[in-house]
Specification:
Elements: H1 2-14, H2 18-22, H3 32-38, H4 43-48, H5 57-69, H6 74-84, H7 92-111, H8 121-135, E1 152-153, H9 155-161, H10 174-181, E2 189-190, H11 191-212, E3 228-232, E4 240-244, E5 247-256, E6 259-264, E7 274-277, E8 285-291, E9 299-306, E10 314-317, H12 325-347, H13 351-374, H14 387-393, H15 397-410, E11 412-415, E12 418-421, H16 426-432, H17 461-486, H18 491-501, H19 503-517, H20 521-536, H21 540-560, H22 579-611, H23 616-635, H24 638-651, H25 655-673
Antiparallel strand pairs: 1-2, 3-5, 4-5, 4-10, 5-6, 6-7, 8-9, 9-10, 11-12
Amino acid sequence: MLKGKSFVETLMRENSFKGLFGARKDEDAYEDEDIITAGEGSPSARSSKKWVRELSSLANVVAARCARILLLSVEELQHQFDDEISESAKVPPKYARNLVEYCCFRALAVATRAMDYLSDKDFRRLTFEMMLAWETPGAADKPIIKVDTERAVGREAFVRLGPAIAGVADPVTVVCQFDALTAASGGRLQFSVYDKYLGELDKIIKTMKSQSSSAHLSKFQMVKAETVIELEGTVTTQPVLQHVGVSTWPGRLTLTDHALYFESLGVVSYDKAKKFDLVGNFRQVVKPELTGPWGARLFDKAISCKSTATPEPFIFEFPEFTGHARRDYWLAIVRELICAHQFLRKYQLEEVGSAEALSRSVLGIVRLKATREAIHGLPTKPESLLTFLTCEEIPGGDLIMEAVARTLQTGEIVSNGKGRSYAKSAAATIANLGGSNSKKQPVVEDPVLAVGEFLIGEFNPVEKAVMQSRDSSKRVELAQSTIDGVKVDGIEMNMAVLKELIMPLNSVLEWIKALQSWNEPFKTAAFLIICSYVLLKDLLGYVLPASLLCLAGFMLWFRQGQDSNTGEVRVTSPASQSTVEQLLALQQGLTELKDLLQAGNIFLLKLRAILFSTLPQATDRVVVVLVIFAFCLAILPWKLMVILLFWEAFTRQTRFRQESTERIFRRVREWWYSVPVVPVRLLKVEEDKKKI
């Protein structure tokens, strides 16, 4: 395998794959059409071409090309697979697919070390055929008659091999990446879309490199190796506007992996750039914002950037005739970088791990932009294609970030007791593709098993965390679908549903009121005696555990009859109302709400009057009551106090206490009505309007 290392160096010097994929007329080359048209049933053809009998036709073609990349024969590659891979990965049902994985992972680890590998169309075709071969790896699978541009790749193949192609996909977002690329093709990835996607990736990374070396960036006071990710506002058809009070300023917006810069357009040139820092722990908040002329909130096409480092939020508008796709794109990528720096601070990554995490975030933004160009529109959920923003929002995302952090901190993945280095880092990917000023990563020194973080027939910790998160997401989506199904329109209908749901609580309250009324003296007396006994014997601490056990037992018992009763709520629809009746009901509801707010304000103002002795007689009475109550609490045991209050509440409706209770409550109401409120003064705030 020392040949492999020299071969990589040759590729990097020549910066071309033509010698690898294009020289198909050599006598040792495997002709696609010859191999495929030879068919499964030609033993002589199999023998002459040295086929692996466990593999299908296309899988043999791919294995031969992988062997050529590694400067090995197919037999040597198969022998290394048999020697190095565990026995569990070589059982007959898994042998063919795992062998294809082994060949593909090793070949990709070598091929992606060349400069600008994404620009080579033969490389794109090979990686696409790798996925096709992964779908039909075994000899018993349906043979491939002809491989052309109309063939399509399924989700499982792209999810498994896509992240192994450096820069093409990320293990965290690969499923959403595939769904975005195949939204218009019925869940199958066509080569035309795949080829265009890879071409856009290559083009965008080269554009990032040219933007990072632009002359206008020298006045930004950037940190070392700061990478320009996005630049907008230089074209008149896609302006960027900053809103400051009632003023609006056009300008140029630059996003790097460390900050957001805005230069307002002056008379001759751009003014000094304003900086919104993304690195420091300044509690950055970026959210959608409504803007309009003279401070009006009309158009949903802007973002608001707030932090403790800026006294006023930065508001940037991205005008367009229809929709708000530009705003959604910028909102997603800025939030992604904020989440990436939060990730760095949380796990305290060192220099190498920090550069790798930022490069991973930058590649996610590049993939989002390439997907937008490939499918001619922004995906429905652009944040789902960004690694760290996705981890912040999906169930189990914290576990994924922990797995990623452990990988970046240790720099290796342990499998079968052997440490295996990365085959390709995100920082090295950007460096090789010419899109970053960061230091180039060293070539992996393991020439024997260069499959890196992708394990043959197994899943690494990050992939396992992602799979668990997908399962949780499916359950959340299923639960969310049930929520969407029970949402009803109209205040009357929602009130009817609420009344039906709180009916058990109303039943409990009615039962307590019945006990207080002493309509059934035996039940009320028994209830009081039992509660008093629990309080006197200090058994209150056992009541809550016993209640929880009874509730758990009731739930288990109720589950046995779930077939007959699923907990469905049946609500009688209220009578339909005309538009006028609905408006009148709304007006009545607003009036009742206003009256309720007024009553609450009056109650608080009277308490304030008592506190500040607006009426000394009322304050004196309250002071006397508080002193008496304080002495009772200090002298009497708390159990006795609780029992006395309990008996007072349940005996006030008895014949010998009813008259005195009514008299006491009447005097309290009269006293409360006699308490005045403190005055309220309304101040008019004069706001200085900013002149344009």
